[in-house]
Amino acid sequence: MSDLQHGEFELDGYLFSGSTSAPLYVVGMGTGVAGTRTQDADNPVGDGRVFGRDYLSGPTWAFDFRAGPGGVDAALTALAGVTKAWRSAPRDPGDESVLRYGVGDRTRRVYGRARQFSQDPNLLYALGYSMAVGEFDVADHWHYADVAQQLTATLIPGNAGGLVSPLVSPLTTVAGGQRQGLVIVAGDAPAPMEITFRGPVTNPKVSSTGWQVALNTTLAYDQSVTVDTRRGTVLRNDGASLGGALSRHTYLPEARLPPGSREIVFTGTDVTGTASCTVAWRPTYYGF
């Protein structure tokens, strides 16, 4: 996947930009505000309020499009392309689109769905150019690096720890043969993960400081389970949900990798020594 130039955007493979020489370009963009959902309540015994837990909703990005040089036919062709991209947004529960963007030397992405799209045909008929507005509802308030990082852990036969790659010396061996390594997490915000356990393994678990993701189940040699801590899903390779197999000590919203040096540990029971686990994450940022 190639990097984007400054001012370029890509919605599920459809490229558009802010260059005025493009057939259709972004003349204006608004990133909206991440709304706050609160559990505040009025103070029942006095003035004021009692603050509860706060949650942030994803903002809505709005794009103002204008057709560039080339005449009416070029404007219609360009408008048809961006309309198709917006109307092709996923509709099934849980499915998301990827909106990539280039700013400076950075290529980053957000997740969500393209929603409202409208155009003003009067401008096309009267002035020979077209303008349109498209809205993209972002899933959350974070920005993600375009390139994912990952590590792979393999189990030693028996109930033991795993070999984590990449490793940072020195390695530490503790009781039970458990091996631990350090990974460097970029970004300035805690990064969610996709954790994939591959059998044969019983009670697989990945842990780090402050969190763990563990399954109370047994995976056969041809089975795998992917836990997506950002989306909150636990899916076996046949599509079945294994959310009920999560241990009581697993809380997916807290399973994130803060920036800096972090220790990752994979444990489980595997007599064959062929079980493995892959932890993938994208450096996460609070802003562009």
Descriptors for this entry?
single chain, 288 residues, mainly beta, Elongation Factor Tu (Ef-tu), domain 3, Jelly Rolls, 2 domains, twelve-stranded antiparallel β-sheet, nine-stranded antiparallel β-sheet, 25 strands, 8% helix, 49% strand, globular
Briefly say what this structure is.
With 288 residues, the protein is mainly beta. The chain has helices at 71-87, 121-127; strands at 8-11, 14-17, 24-30, 36-38, 41-42, 49-50, 54-56, 60-67, 97-103, 106-120, 131-138, 143-145, 149-155, 158-165, 172-174, 178-185, 193-198, 201-208, 211-214, 218-219, 224-228, 233-236, 260-270, 276-281, 284-285.
Question: How would the blueprint of this fold be written?
Answer:
Elements: E1 8-11, E2 14-17, E3 24-30, E4 36-38, E5 41-42, E6 49-50, E7 54-56, E8 60-67, H1 71-87, E9 97-103, E10 106-120, H2 121-127, E11 131-138, E12 143-145, E13 149-155, E14 158-165, E15 172-174, E16 178-185, E17 193-198, E18 201-208, E19 211-214, E20 218-219, E21 224-228, E22 233-236, E23 260-270, E24 276-281, E25 284-285
Antiparallel strand pairs: 1-2, 1-9, 3-8, 4-7, 5-6, 8-11, 9-10, 10-11, 10-12, 12-25, 13-14, 13-24, 14-23, 15-16, 16-23, 17-21, 17-24, 18-19, 18-20, 18-23, 21-22
